[in-house]
Amino acid sequence: MKLVLVADPMCSWCHGFGKEMTALQERHPEMSLEIVVAGLRAGATDVLDEAGKRFRLEHWAKVEQASGLPFNRDGLMAREGFVYDTEPVCRAVVAARILASEADLLKVFRAFQHAFYVAALDTTDGVLLAKVGAEALSADGHFVTPDEFLSVWQSKSTIDATCADFIRARSMGVTSFPTLFLAQQCSLRRVGNGYAHVETLEHAIDALHAA
């Protein structure tokens, strides 16, 4: 039995949900977690303009109120010429999974979220992603250099594996992020979609067990 999380590191509700997922993992150490990256805006080419920034700030305020997690609003507003493409950071999550399959991928995932939402770093930059990813893996006991991380991130096999995650997310019927599933034997059952507190997740899992 395991949990399967479909999410995108540059999805604001997924950022808020990270804290709840960490709490859920702490309550259920017997359940492993698989992360499928969603590709929320994978391949986007449009530059984030002032209207786009204001639109995101409205969402960020709602997530911050619900989750209590911080957002760097000034960092977003100061961005110039930023293309909100989520493929690079999704691929960084996949690269981490390839480099250290036994690592706590949620910690790595949340490190990328923190880089974007709190540190206001450019998570479309491969060199920066490699630095963040290598530090997160090393902190989890899987020593990787930024150069090693970057090499894997740039490889065609990682690009293909990331695309496979996007396709899998769609095949699972996921239309909003985050979405959490419970996988048991041959079944995959939806725990919930969208942001939810850990207690709500617990009740949903208990109901699935009872069913």
Automatic annotation (TrEMBL):
<protein>
    <recommendedName>
        <fullName>DSBA-like thioredoxin domain protein</fullName>
    </recommendedName>
</protein>
<dbReference type="InterPro" id="IPR036249">
    <property type="entry name" value="Thioredoxin-like_sf"/>
</dbReference>
